[in-house]
Amino acid sequence: MPNLRDYRDRIKSVKSTRKITSAMKMVAASKLRRAQEQAEASQPYARSMAGMLSRLSANVVINAASPKLLAGTGADQKHLIIVVTADRGLCGGFNTNAVKEARQKIYALEKQGKDVSIVCVGRKGYDLLMREFSDKIIHSFKDVFGKKGVEYAEAHKICEFILARFEAGEFDICSLVYNDFRSILVQEPSSLQLIPFQAVDGEAEDDAGDKDVEADKIKSPYSFEPTEEEILAKLLPRNLGVQIFRAMLDSAAGEQAARMTAMDNATRNAGEMIDDLTLQYNRARQAYITKELIEIISGAEAV
Amino acid sequence: MSNVINFELVSPAAKLVSESMYMVEVPGDDGAFGVAVGHCSLVSSLRAGVVRLHKEQGTSDVREIFIAGGFADVTAESCTILAEEAIDVKDLNKESLEQHLSDLAEDLEMSEETEDKLRVQAKITLTQAKLNAVSA
User: Fold this and answer.
1) pLDDT above 80: residue A62
2) Where are the beta strands (DSSP E) in chain A?
3) B94 burial level (CB within 10 Å; 0-12, 13-18, 19+)
């Protein structure tokens, strides 16, 4: 009978675990929808800005007077890597994948003799990296992913932090490592160079469509006020903020999708475990009944 | 050719306005300019100021939106304004802005580091611009 009680207890505890994982899955699903909506709502701004930048970059010759955010410092020695992860766990391989990608990048850079420093966005990244690289982590942004989603103000804060360090000459090249949201099932760790800014060809023309671009060229060439350089100087820091914001939105959506998948698997596994345990419990119960019957019958026969 | 342009006001988080307008007044860095259909293609940076939207020709129903700086992308048929911060002028509260301004003035006196002073000064300039928009 202790056996039977043990089985019953185990079944009860796994059932309550299953309830929790099932609830977490549904919460993650609704948060995912909100995160995807946020990501979509941010696209018009990002696309317009990319369009402006590509038009400006086409007209500007990079020389010594160009903004450093575009031209770079000229050196390649000091690298800053921003690692974006989630604040909480229970999302499958999401956090470890991003950190693995970051780690590989860091090893590769160190092999080339470069100096690397790290900024963590999200608690999990910090927890996973601090053991090995605590001397390289210069700052960690925690709890930036709010309940209502990602606020632009948070991305702005990170952007200001990076810009201040860049102005002070603390690094030459800045890259961002995050999980790119490809689909609900696939989140792929990607890396993106933020400083110096790298124009992605064809990105700006996407929304206008090729024929519009041709029409633009025929219609009238763009003029710039006050000057290309002044606009670029103002635009590049803003663009940095937008890129960080988009990466955070992608990461937030990916986190919820990963958690939904992980909790779905956990719920299913718990269900299987309950079925297995129930079978064993029934077997044990029947064995006990048979034992009792045998005892009664053999007792009766002895009399 | 129609006489309206496609106007959009976009912030990083969402598209705030997407309507067709007859004419839009934009606070450019080099001076305010008006955009109507047929305007030459232009990219301009914007200072903190008021964007005035004229829905129809000669209408007195003009929507005023304060932006804390940004960029404008103008073509012959469209005008897109990118702004991180945009508030309808009718939603600005004169008293709370004046209170904010005097609070900031105190902060300026109390701050010692040049960095802090610069930051507070920037906030003061922005709040003053908002106040001007509301008083006009």
Assistant:
1) no
2) 78-84, 115-121, 137-141, 145-146, 149-150, 173-181, 187-195, 223-225
3) exposed
A243 touches chain B (CB under 8 A): no
- Quick check: A171 pLDDT over 90? yes
Alpha-carbon separation of residue B102 from A239, B25, B94, B123, B126 (angstroms): 33, 30, 13, 12, 13
Q: Which of B82, B113, B118 to mutate to test the interface with A (most CBs of A within 10 A)?
A: B82
Instruction: At A75, give phi and psi (nearest 5°).
Output: -105, 170
Task: Provide the pLDDT confidence category of residue A203 given band limits of 50, 70 and 90.
Answer: very low
Domain that holds residue B102: 93-135
- Measured CA to CA, the distance from residue A152 to residue A145 in angstroms comes to 11
What angle separates helix B94-110 from helix B114-135, to the nearest 10 degrees? Answer: 160
Tens-digit pLDDT profile for residues A287-296: 999 999 999 9
Q: Is the pLDDT of residue A201 over 60?
A: no
Are residues B29 and A56, on separate chains, in Cβ contact within 8 Å?
Answer: no
Q: Indicate if B37 and B71 belong to the same structural domain.
A: yes
Q: Provide mean pLDDT across the span A138-166.
A: 91
Q: How far is B82 from chain A (nearest CA, A)?
A: 7
Q: What is the pLDDT at residue A202? A: 45
Domain A26-261: what homologous superfamily? ATP synthase, F1 complex, gamma subunit (3.40.1380.10)
Are B80 and B106 contained in the same domain?
no
pLDDT digits over B37-82, tens only?
999 999 999 999 999 999 988 888 899 999 999 999 999 999 999 9
Q: Which two tokens stand for residue A194?
A: 């933020």
Same domain, B60 and B27: yes
Residue of A nearest to B69 (CA): A234
Q: Judge whether A154 and A160 are in contact, CB under 8 Å.
A: no
Please give the structure tokens belonging to residue B7: 């106007």
Domain ranges of chain A: 26-261
Same domain, B13 and B75: yes
Q: Which of B17, B30, B43 is the mutation pick for testing A, counting most A CBs within 10 A?
A: B43
Q: Which two tokens stand for residue A262?
A: 């992980």
The total number of structural domains that make up chain B: 2
Residue B74 sits in the same domain as residue B59: yes
